[in-house]
Structure formats: C-alpha cells, structure tokens
Amino acid sequence: MGIFLSSARSPEHETSIANSDSTKRQRMSVENEQQPAIIPGLPEEIALQILARVTRGNHPLLRCVCKSWYRILSTSEIFNLRKELGVMEEWLYVLMKDEEDHLGWHVLDPVEGKWRKLPPMPEIANIAKKTDAPETSWGWRIPLGPLRMMRLTGLFGGWFQRKGFLDKTPFCGCSAGAINGSLYVLGGFSWASAMRAVWRYDSRTNTWASSAGMEVARAYCKTGVVDNKLYAIGGVDRGRGGLTPLQSAEVYDPETDSWSQVAPMPFRRAQVIPTAFLADMLKPIATGMASYNGKLCVPQSLYSWPFFVDVGGEIFDPATDTWAEMPNGMGEDWPARQAGTKLSVVVGGKLYALDPTSSMDGSKIKVYDSEQDVWKVVLKKNAPGDEMVGAHFL
C-alpha cells in the first residue's frame, strides 16, 4: 500500500505572540454588556485562563457549550494566551492514501494518544480538470515528498507507472506548512496537471478555505517557514517530455494573503557537469529543505530516472534574498546519500536527518554539527527487530 506523509508543526506552535508589550495583552472583552459572562461568577481574565488550559483535543466539545465559548475558541487570542501560559501542544498532521486511492488528512493528538480525521479537503478537480488530457507518459520522475514511508522502487513501480493514477487522485504531490494557526496545503497534481491552488485548514474552526494561489503551478515543492512566512521552493511541472523540474521560489505572507517571487535557486553545482551529454540528461532538483538558523537549507541532486547524483546544496537567506553554496560537509553528507527525499527536521535549534535503511547497517538519525561541518549519528537501529541505540549529546 502506497503511503506518503506530510508533517507540519502544530498551528499553535507557529502562532506568534502579540507585540513586545504583550504583558498588557488586550483582553477579549464581551462586545455587549448584556451578553452572559464567560464563566458566571468569575472575572473574565480568570475565565479565559481556565479555558486556555484545557487541552486542544477537548476544544470541539467546549465550542458546543455556548456561543461565547465558541467565539473565544475561534480567535487567535486564545492561542496567544496558551503560548504565554506555556501550555501549547504540538500535533502531527499526516496525509495518507486509503484503499480507494483517496487522500485524506489525519492528525495525531499526542496528549490523548488519539488519531483524528480532518474534514475532507474541498474538491478541486473541476478547477484543474482537462477533459482532453492525453494519457500520461512520463519522461522522468521524481521522489515522493515532503516525507515518505516506502522504498523508491515501490513508489515508481506502484504509483507513477500505474495508468491514470494522477488523473484520479487530486492533491497527489502536494506540500504543506503551518503558520498563524493554520495548515496550508500547496499545489500538487490534479488530472495530471500541476496546480497553483492553496488550501488552508483552520484548526480553530475545523474548516477548510481557499487562500491566494501560488504564482507558479508546482507539485512536490519543498516548504519552510521563516519569520512567519511560508516559502515554496522548486518542485516540478508537467512539460511536453514529462515532468519538468523548477528552480523558481516564492513566499507567502499570511498578513496580506499574497505570494511574491524570490530569487530562484542557482544550482551552481549543475553548471559544472563534465559533458554536454550529461548536462542535457541530468536535471537539477531540490530533494529536501530545512528552516535552520533563520535560513532555508536546500539539499539538491541531479536526476534522470533511475539515476541520482547528489550535488550538495544551497542556502537561501530571506533577509538578503540571496543564495549561497552549502558548506561541503553539510551538503555532500546530508542523509540519505541515495535516491529519494532528504528527510530532516529542526528540534531545539539542531538539524536532524534520517538515514533510512539501505543495507545491513540499519537506519540512523544524524545531527549536523555546524562548528565541525559534519553529520554525527545520534540514534541507530542495527537490524530489523533490534533495539534502538542512542547517543546522548548537549
């Protein structure tokens, strides 16, 4: 069964606190004096703090109590208050395919230890559908992203080579990011065409709504958040000869609900291919991305099915709108050194990457040491069924 995952930080985690004088946070006052108290007999400030301390998994029940609770729990202020109180929760969002090839979002509540199914995404097939679209013949193919839980051979053999798969699976190849209390789902394929469409899931109201579309139609793009703005980099579009890689990049500002172009990826390593034949055959593609130290780190590869050649990577600085070549150790040794998406995450200011099982050595989790420009193993699984061996570090 083919499954692909897309993780996003909890919208609460991405919600920024109000300005520096937030200690004098504007209270959510009742608009009309005739409206009932939030909790009868208690001052409003105390009542708000009580509601804020209730776990997120119980918010749907709280909204059913009364209109005032529904209104309060549907605003960003209650999320800001939860952040001030230090009671935030991180939820894991997963996009997976069911037995009928339909994609749907699920979320893990780590506090309750329960999986919850989100409402289905709006049907957009009528937006991108092309009734005269010919049968798809792919000239070259890309790995699944932003996270995957299957081997590359199974991916291409079971999905892209399945006749008409993209024609019946909207949102295949979409990407995701979380900002301002919302989960954003970007692009992907619908009826074998890449899309500009962006959909936003609001965890406060448990509803989907459309947001401003990207300036470039793209699927399998890489996403990252810096300074509360969402970046979409690379990906592919459908060309005459199959899938065409993209070097363009753009940024979304949730305050204005708008996208704007940023400097495209230069792919400097792609310019030093030894022969013109290889330059024509191998196409540059971003194979991962991580928001690290206020910048976007993008490992890259040259690609032509079934061949991958890792070529290090580049780092984008949003403050200057410029790209720089990634340090040698960081780029050349970024796990995994094999065909497929680079799986990485930043936790506590440290950059981690998964080196999946590819031999008898087993799977490994590595952390990047920026001072020494090396990747170090922090967790290892020697073989199927063996216990994980960890290394402690500060």
Question: What shape does the CA trace take?
Answer: globular
Count of strand segments: 27
What ranges have pLDDT less than 50 throughout 5 or more consecutive residues? Answer: 1-33, 124-167, 386-394
Distance N terminus to C terminus?
A: 39 Å
* Helical residues, percent: 10-25%
Strand content: 25-35%
Region (Disordered): 1-35
InterPro entries: F-box-like_dom_sf, F-box_dom, Kelch-typ_b-propeller, Kelch_1
Protein name: F-box domain-containing protein
Keywords: Kelch repeat, Repeat
Describe the model:
There is one protein chain. With 394 residues, the protein is α+β, with helices and mostly antiparallel strands. It has a domain at 91-326: Kelch-type beta propeller (Neuraminidase, 6 Propeller). Helices cover 15% and strands 34% of the residues. The strands form eight sheets. Strands 18, 19, 20, 21 and 22 form a five-stranded antiparallel β-sheet that branches. A five-stranded antiparallel β-sheet has the order 23-24-25-26-27, with no helix packed on it. A hairpin with a 2-residue loop joins strand 8 and strand 9 (193-194). Helix 2 (44-52) packs across helix 5 (76-85). The chain is globular, with a radius of gyration of 23 Å. It comes from Physcomitrium patens. This is F-box domain-containing protein. It holds the Pfam family F-box.
